[in-house]
Amino acid sequence: MGKNPGRAAGALVAVIASPKALARATRLRHAPDLFELRLDALRHSLGEISRALPKLSAPLLFTARHPAEGGVGQLRLAERRALLQRFLKDAAIIDLELRSVGQMKDMIGEMHQRQIHLLISRHDLQATPLPNNLRRDAYSAAVAGAAIFKVVTRTDTREQLARLITFFEASRDLLPIAAMGIGKLGLESRSRLDQLGSALTYASIGRANVAGQPSLSQIRRSQHAYIT
After folding, report:
1. Which end of the chain offers a freer environment for a tag, N or C, measured as fewer CB atoms within 10 Å?
2. What pTM was computed for the model?
3. Is residue 26 helix, strand or coil?
4. Ordered domains of the chain (ranges, CATH)
5. Closest Cα to residue 168, out of 6, 9, 4?
6. Which of these, 61, 66, 76, 67, lies nearest to 98 by C-alpha position?
7. Are 222 and 187 in contact (CB under 8 A)?
8. Could you tell me the strand order of the sheet in which 148-154 lies?
9. Other CB atoms within 10 A of residue 6 CB
10. 3-state class of 34 per DSSP?
11. In DSSP terms, which residues pair with 96 in a beta bridge?
């Protein structure tokens, strides 16, 4: 498996967060730029993952999400580390939350040796913080060696969406940023930020994993509308 994290901007990431989505991903006629495997949500299907990996025709991004940022199963640090370590050899990118970076230094060192890209993320599922607060997190991610900083916030209102866009436009000088919203304006946020140059745009395979997460087909229709 190559270690290319996708295009420099606008790479499409299809999220695999259930055994059903995993099976569907192996049958996709048009692969995305990346597949993200949510190991916290797939922790009871590790054998299925191993059997499916050769059939996934795009580079792989792995994450085992922190419970405070939407992770499934209330997994402890050691459990999340073990899940990631198991699939490290297959990864093009590993996603670690900013809050977890200091506790994962040994694994990050191994990632550097294997030339695996580090994505550092922040997920605020209840609100959209002030742009300056998000910029501070982006700066911290850059200092920690992230190839990409991913930020996901609640975008139920126009004000929240405006905050997220303001942060994105003011912080791209620091490092590549993948920004997106969830909630009522989730699809609109991803379409607009994709047009503005978000490094990654995430979509579900089948059922949404969080409120407002668009499907792969919805994102592709949206991209077609503004590319053409």
Report:
1. C
2. 0.92
3. coil
4. 11-227 (3.20.20.70)
5. 9
6. 66
7. yes
8. 177-182, 148-154, 117-124, 93-97, 60-63, 34-38, 11-16, 200-204
9. 21
10. strand
11. 120
Stated length of the chain: 228
Distance between CA atoms of residues 44 and 158, nearest Å: 39
Paired with 201 in beta bridges are 12
Q: 203 near 15, Cβ under 8 Å?
A: yes
Burial of 225 per CB tally in 10 Å (0-12, 13-18, 19+): exposed
Report how far residue 91's alpha carbon sits from residue 59's, in angstroms, rounded to the nearest whole number.
7
224 pLDDT higher than 90: no
pLDDT in tens, 126-164: 999 999 999 999 999 999 999 999 999 999 999 999 999
CA 117 to chain centre: 13
Is the confidence at residue 88, as pLDDT, over 80? yes
Distance CA 49, CA 91 (A): 13
Give the pLDDT band of residue 213 (cuts 50, 70, 90): confident
Beta-strand relationship, 34-38 and 11-16: parallel
